[in-house]
Amino acid sequence: MQRHIITWALSLGLLSTASLANDIQIDYPGSHQAWQLRHCFQQAPAQMQAHGEATLTLTADWQWQGRSLTPRGRRLALPAGEAGCLQYTVKPRAGNHNQRSSRFRAQHPDSLLLSVDDWQWQASDQSQRQWPQVTINHPADVQVSAPWQLLKRSARQTHYQMKPSPSYANGFLAMGPMQLRTLALGESRLRLAIMAGNHTEHSDLLSDWVKQMAASVARVGESFPLPEVQVLVVLMTGSQGPVPWGQVNRAGGQGVLLVVNPESSRASLFADWTAAHEFSHLLMPYTPYDRWLSEGFASYHQNITRMRVGLLDEPTAWSKLIAGFERGQRTAQQRSAPVLKEAGRRHNMQMYWGGAVFALKADVALQQQSGGRMSLSKTLAGLQDCCLDTGRSWTARSLFQEMDRISASTVFTRLYEQEVKRAPFMEYADLLRELGIERNAYGRIRFNDQAPKALIRQRISLGY
Ligand SMILES: [Zn+2]
């Protein structure tokens, strides 16, 4: 929109303040070509800032109302308070930020997969502004998938509302030929986008699979944890296993990315743990400084969720948990972080499975103290009401204070202070014995229903 039109429309009162406050329009011509982005303000900020170095590489030709601008470092100065539009070109082929690998480029030559932050200049005073709406104009053979809240979609236009999200998080904008489906799960909507390449025949199977994995997670917190989530499935050959990669994303909104091998069978896809793990991450808010916590709870729930919907039978689910605990304890005894709280990327098994023992211990303690009225699942259901979609990051301490409040207990902060901050791994052998989970000489799981906490084990298995 040109300046004189804005001025004219404002003077006639034709445009509301909100619609002009901060809107982004993208004209994407398709097939990797550069696109124009126009970010219009009713009152410009003094500065725009680049998220990182990538933004400087991927964008060019910055103009304010037709006048050229030059960035200084990661900042672009604008005439503060003026109405108008910042326009620039995004060159998705510049740099190496768009395509995750040469294999992706070869198998999806007409598609883009870009971090949502890499190509955007953001108002330096964004926290005091409304978040922009984004309108993407695209050819009819291009579909768009983004983590932002979807407002409207038509053949050539996709319209989103941006909202606050935690700093330093990942998120993806995908554009290209995709199969789009909206999967309803109770009140929630999964916005599934399948980037299929040459393997377009799998969309029914993949929809079923995504829905079942998400539904298993919905069995934990009474409903699926979020009202809306982006699910991006990228089909790629050339890797081992049915789901060679998965990740949960928090930038721009909540999203799950799953890379699926199109040569895998239905049975192997449904037997894989990755999707249940990634969806389980959504039961908790973003805790970037405590990876043991987010990975631990997801590792616990990837088995609990699948057991509750019958994707895993009870002995198999518990044997997978115990195998994980043992791997974690073994590595914690060898070369590990001195305490679980400090376990990071270099201590994967300690971090994933130490955190999973924490989740089991907290679950059992809550059930025991409350006589079965409270549980980890009920606490996570409480998180849905207050804390999952706020766009903030949490520390373990702040989240555990909230979880103690929800569960009317001190279980989370107590376990955190007394064990996670003091030992490399939590003891679990006695706990398994009390729950009546035993192994015979061949390593097979047996349940002892006479054990003192056998009822708690049954409640965990069945989810009531
Ligand atoms: Zn994970």
Gist?
With about 475 residues, the chain is of the alpha+beta class.
Folded structure, characterized:
This protein has 464 residues and is of the alpha+beta class. It folds into 3 domains: 3-101 and 110-166, Sandwich (Immunoglobulin-like); 178-279, 2-Layer Sandwich (Zincin-like), CATH 3.30.2010; 283-462, Orthogonal Bundle (Neutral Protease, domain 2). It has helices at residues 3-11, 17-21, 53-58, 102-107, 203-218, 266-271, 274-281, 291-308, 314-333, 348-370, 376-386, 396-407, 411-420, 429-435, 454-462; strands at 22-27, 35-41, 47-50, 59-64, 67-68, 75-77, 84-90, 112-115, 121-123, 133-137, 143-145, 149-153, 157-161, 172-176, 179-185, 188-195, 228-235, 245-249, 255-260, 437-439, 445-447. Strands 5-4-7-2-1-10-13-12 form an 8-stranded mixed sheet. Helix 5 crosses helix 8, helix 9 (314-333) packs across helix 10 and helix 12 (396-407) packs antiparallel against helix 13 (411-420). The relative contact order is 0.08. The structure holds zinc ion.
